[in-house]
Amino acid sequence: MLEWIYSPEAWISLLTLTSLEIVLGIDNIIFIAILCGKLPDSQKDKARIVGLGLAMITRILLLLSLFWIMKLTTPLFSVFDQAISGRDLVLIAGGLFLIAKSTLEIHSHATGEDEEAELKSGKKAGFVSVITQIAILDIVFSLDSVITAVGMADHIEIMILAVILAVGVMLFASGAISRFVDNNPTIKVLALAFLIMIGIALVGEGLGLHIPKGYIYFAMAFSLVVEMINIYSKKKHEK
After folding, report:
1. DSSP state string for the chain
2. pLDDT tens for each residue of 96-113
3. CA distances from 73 to 43, 68, 76, 90, 215 (A)
């Protein structure tokens, strides 16, 4: 069972897969950071840890049910000659949820409706509500992650270990990312725009339109660098 420990190829596979899992988890971290920002300060860290814990558990459970995952790729019906499988339905539903949620968040941020509602009611978002939304999107984000893992490693132990290591790194970095997003409103809007783009990519993927992830991550990185320059320039002018 642990013969892979003595195989250099297995360790290379573990390192590569862990790196990919971290990259594929960036959208998950952004979504969790934005949702946790709606909670009271005393609950933010707890929600972030629970959210990433759920992401890890979801990925491991999906890995342990590989037979079911493989069945998800079986076509269920066709739309305009395009075969639709169970995986496609999950991706389309998740993508639409992400687009709708991010669009509403941008609208609330632009109009200040959330802040007004909080001031009137004296309450912030509920912990259970935030965790439920994170759990829903964890399933969608985990599908991509698990399918990548299955395609890259031969041993279930390597896949599970890669997921645990990746979530550990994400947990370490997520606090700083959450605080940065909270402290920079323009970054929050940019992050929500990223999530809309990822939602569109998920819907496209579900409809058989493959959009290379490299293009999406390059666009995200480029936009982030431009925004970081803007923030730096603004702070310099303020001084």
Report:
1. --GGGG-HHHHHHHHHHHHHHHHHTHHHHHHHHHHHTTS-HHHHHHHHHHHHHHHHHHHHHHHHTHHHHHHTTSEEEEETTEEEEHHHHHHHHHHHHHHHHHHHHHHHHHHTHHHHHHHHH-----HHHHHHHHHHHHHHHHHHHHHHHHHH-S-HHHHHHHHHHHHHHHHHHHHHHHHHHHH-HHHHHHHHHHHHHHHHHHHHHHTT----HHHHHHHHHHHHHHHHHHHHHHHHHH-
2. 888 888 888 888 777 766
3. 38, 9, 9, 11, 25
- Could you give the CA distance from residue 47 to residue 42 in angstroms, rounded to a whole number? 10
Residue in the structure block whose two tokens are 């342990």: 64
For 222, the token pair is 């480029």
Provide the pLDDT confidence category of residue 71 given band limits of 50, 70 and 90. Answer: low
Share of the chain above pLDDT 70, in %: 80
Q: Which residue has the tokens 């390192």?
A: 15
Residue with tokens 């909670």: 39
- In degrees rounded to 5, what are phi and psi of residue 39? -90, 160
Domain boundaries along the sequence of the chain? 8-238
